[in-house]
Write a structure and sequence with these properties.
Layout: E1 7-9, E2 19-22, E3 25-27, H1 34-40, H2 42-49, E4 53-55, H3 57-62, E5 70-75, E6 79-84, E7 87-93, E8 102-103, E9 109-111, H4 114-120, H5 138-171, H6 174-187, H7 199-205, H8 215-226, H9 240-257, H10 264-273, H11 281-294, H12 307-321, E10 339-340, E11 343-344, H13 351-362, H14 368-382, H15 389-403, H16 416-429, H17 433-446, H18 454-463, H19 470-480
Parallel strand pairs: 4-9, 5-7
Antiparallel strand pairs: 1-3, 2-3, 4-5, 6-7, 8-9, 10-11
Helix pairs in contact: 4-5, 5-6, 8-13, 8-14, 9-11, 12-13, 12-15, 13-14, 14-15, 16-17
């Protein structure tokens, strides 16, 4: 079986075709590049060249060479080895492996434990001519510590600190531990937060931790919205009855998106009489709660000016929306994590901090459509409530538009799939364009919905196949949706 090994040390194997890829290192792989073979067999090579070595500092976290090909190693001497294609072994004299370090497979190579490498990367470090350093920025350490709290709570971080103190004493890294201790204390709000550098670190120290995974998503949407101008669609529903009629259809479709399905005549009866349908009392209240908010022009004129106003307005609207479902804690943020399919939303303890971070970006947007789209997405993406998140997010969106005299956005049933897929594209791939395109198309469509005549509006919607499910009338819908009245 020896002949089937990829690398050999000391000399070429007899009777097998091979090539030399580095000093005293040969391979039977005559196809792949020397660089890729070296990288693939790096740990085996290290065990032969530097038995008992410790992959340390930032290499212990990466467990691979840096982009420039550097790998940092602690051993019995200091040296830089450059005779391996694509790899630079940056060897530093230091302590051998200790009990908490990790042995890599059955090889005689070890990796610094997390306790050790976090202390190691806090050592003073200068960048070399390639811009490389054995250390990591403080921001990377902050993010790692914040992640520990999110996953295991403050107790886990305190246990980590206690163990790191022991390791620091064993390895004579007490100065580095003091730096680490100050970071941990700042995150736990028992020390000044001035040393913190990351947004999530400062938010946690302020008692409002946030979800760091949402930051790049919100920033991607904000960047796209802030760099563009959007068409203005004036709201032609000037009379109170026309406003009310539009609000009815908006309420109907918003609930249908979430699975609360009624015939249009049933929904109209519920709204006109205020009487719920037997055996569907909770669903009927969903229609009534949504319509109660959407049909109130004073309510829909309110937009938040401060973080606290944003939080209170969101909770107030949710309390009205789901007043018929007490089991969903109307007006209160969730106390358990929720998910939809493979998407896991923001953890309960991170909701307020994430909402406040997102609101800061909202305040910098100028275009009404941009503010509306951004507001809708952040409320949907954070999912702050047990239920009703989609409906309340669309109410928040349309309040932005109505307050500025623009037509509100209705998402008809036939467009549900495209709408949900656009949200998913932004959430999973940080791609805001499909989401923006969907809302623009739907605002254009909604601009054709005006007037006080229910039957005329209903007939127009049927002509556009707005009530159809996506798989029922997709082709016809594409041709007719948005037809001018």
């Amino acid at each position: 079986m020896e002949a089937f090994k990829e690398v050999f040390f000391g000399g070429a194997p007899k009777g097998v075709k091979s090539k030399k890829i580095a000093p005293k290192i040969y391979t039977t792989n005559l196809i792949d590049s020397s660089e890729n073979i070296i990288r693939r067999n790096l740990f085996e090579i290290l065990a032969w060249r530097l038995p008992g070595c410790v992959i340390s500092h930032k290499s212990a976290q990466l467990l691979r060479p840096t982009e420039q090909g550097y790998i940092y190693i602690t051993y019995s001497f200091t040296k830089k080895i450059t005779d391996y294609p694509g790899i630079v072994l940056n060897i530093m004299q230091g302590p051998t492996h200790i009990a908490t370090d990790i042995r890599l497979g059955s090889s005689d190579v070890y990796c610094s434990s997390e306790y050790r490498w976090i202390l190691e990367v806090l050592q003073p470090a200068r960048k070399n001519k390639d811009g490389e350093s054995k250390g990591l920025p403080i921001s990377a350490i902050e993010e790692r510590l914040d992640s520990m709290i999110r996953i295991g709570g403050e107790e886990r971080l305190n246990l980590f600190r206690d163990r790191a103190r022991e390791i620091a004493t064993e390895l004579n890294l007490t100065q580095e531990f003091e730096k680490l201790n100050k970071l941990i204390s700042a995150l736990l709000a028992t020390h000044s937060s001035n040393i913190l550098t990351t947004t999530q670190g400062k938010a946690r120290a302020a008692g409002e931790p946030m979800d760091p995974a949402r930051i790049p998503i919100f920033e991607a949407l904000y960047k796209e919205l802030s760099n563009r101008y959007f068409p203005v669609y004036e709201d032609n529903n000037k009379s109170e009855e026309a406003f009310r009629m539009f609000s009815f259809f908006e309420s109907y479709f918003s609930n249908y998106i979430e699975g609360t399905e009624f015939e249009i005549s049933e929904a109209k009866q519920i709204v006109d009489t205020g009487i719920t349908i037997p055996k569907r009392i909770a669903d009927s209240h969903d229609i009534l709660g949504t319509f109660k908010l959407l049909s109130n022009r004073q309510e829909m004129s309110l937009i938040p000016k401060t973080e606290d106003e944003f939080i209170k307005l969101l909770q107030h609207r949710h309390s009205v929306l789901l007043e018929g479902r007490p089991e969903c804690s109307p007006g209160f943020f969730k106390d358990v994590r929720n998910r939809a399919g493979n998407t896991e939303f923001v953890a309960p303890e991170l909701v307020i901090g994430t909402l406040k971070y997102a609101f800061k970006l909202y305040c910098n947007l100028k275009e009404p459509f941009a503010k509306a789209a951004y507001m809708m997405f952040i409320c949907s993406e954070i999912h702050p409530f047990i239920d009703g998140n989609g409906r309340v997010s669309r109410i928040m969106m349309n309040a932005e538009l109505f307050s500025q005299g623009q037509i509100r956005i209705i998402i008809p049933t036939v467009f549900r799939e495209d709408y949900i897929l656009s949200l998913r594209s932004l959430s999973r791939h940080k791609n805001p364009q499909p989401f923006i395109n969907v809302l623009q198309k739907m605002q254009n469509f909604s601009a054709n919905l005006w007037g006080e005549d229910f039957y005329a509006l209903d007939a127009y919607l049927r002509e556009c196949n707005a009530y159809s499910k996506p798989d029922e009338a997709k082709l016809l819908y594409i041709n007719r949706l948005g037809t001018k009245r």
